[in-house]
Specification:
single chain, alpha/beta, Rossmann fold, 7 strands, 15% strand, globular, binds NADPH dihydro-nicotinamide-adenine-dinucleotide phosphate, binds 2-hydroxyethylsulfonic acid
């Protein structure tokens, strides 16, 4: 593999950590960014000097801009931005959902992704090469009860990616939406249920969900296609997941 420099947000656990491992083991330089620096430092200890731990809250626009502007020279020509930091909070119907949860999802999944993209994109355009890989979700296309704002943030991610492609035509910069379905072994559901592990575990009971390594594999695959190939969307589900019929209320 040519030596890529990869910037991964939400790198401390889950898909992000698996992505850092995958690229670092293939010889890439990886900036591993998230809020929990101790987990990032552990990743560096595991993977070596090609990993740069970066304590970063993507909700903090000034911090994102400063972090990108002040990257050490060895890591500052980013080839691949993996916009992975994100979360779902709650599964309540819209009329009962927490506004704080909604705002946190918008601040992270939408605004955080915008801050990172806007900070890193000019360098990619100047170098005439780069790749923005956004973590979308099947929830962007398929609605489900309680998915209200989470699914909408991922629909934003999908459409923003397509519009980025339109702006970046001729600039040598690729854009991909990697949109997984049910995925286990990450903190996603524990975060969604505000730390209720029993509720989180119940989501995966009796299933064989996608793993973080499955998703990292897809991310690595799209990033290592020849430069003239742009994968617009990878939508992936575990074999045990499919679609439900339309719901019809018979009492109204
Ligand atoms: P995890 O909860 O395991 O990991 C989320 C990561 O995001 C953590 O590393 C966390 O790090 C980081 N993060 C959260 N908020 C911030 C913030 N404000 N600033 C910086 N980093 C932040 O989730 P997954 O790995 O499962 O999910 C990763 C992405 O994939 C998300 O965007 C999610 O929406 C999406 N996705 C997940 C699916 C699933 O079923 N698991 C399916 C489809 C998409 P820290 O706390 O250290 O900051
Ligand atoms: C995560 C998958 O189905 O919980 O994006 O929304 S789902």
């Amino acid at each position: 593999m040519t030596h890529l420099t990869v910037f991964v947000t939400g790198a401390s656990v889950g898909f992000g950590a698996a992505t850092v491992r995958r690229f670092a083991r293939e010889g890439a330089l990886v900036v591993a960014a998230s809020r929990r620096i101790e987990k990032l430092t552990a990743l560096k200890k595991e993977l070596g000097e090609n990993v740069l731990p970066l304590e970063l809250d993507v909700q903090d626009r000034a911090a994102v801009e400063a972090a990108v502007a002040n990257l050490p020279k060895r890591f500052n020509e980013i080839d691949v931005l993996v916009n992975n930091a994100g979360l779902a909070l709650g599964l309540a119907p819209a009329q009962e959902a927490s506004m704080e949860d909604w705002i946190a999802m918008v601040e992270t999944n939408i605004k955080g992704l915008l801050y990172c993209t806007r900070a890193i994109l000019p360098g990619m355009v100047a170098r005439k090469r780069g790749h923005v890989i956004n973590l979308g979700s099947v929830a962007s296309e398929f609605p489900y009860p309680g998915g209200n704002v989470y699914g909408a943030t991922k629909a934003f991610v999908h459409q923003f990616g397509l519009n980025l492609r339109a702006d970046l035509l001729g600039k040598g910069v690729r854009v991909t939406d990697v949109a997984p379905g049910l995925s286990g072994g990450t903190e996603f559901s524990e975060v969604r249920f505000h730390g209720d592990k029993a509720k989180a575990d119940a989501i995966y009971e009796g299933t064989t969900p996608l793993t973080a390594d499955d998703v990292a594999d897809a991310i690595h695959w799209v990033a290592t296609r020849p430069p003239h190939v742009n994968i617009n969307l990878v939508q992936m589900m575990p074999t045990c997941q499919a679609f439900a019929p339309f719901a019809v209320s018979r009492s109204s």
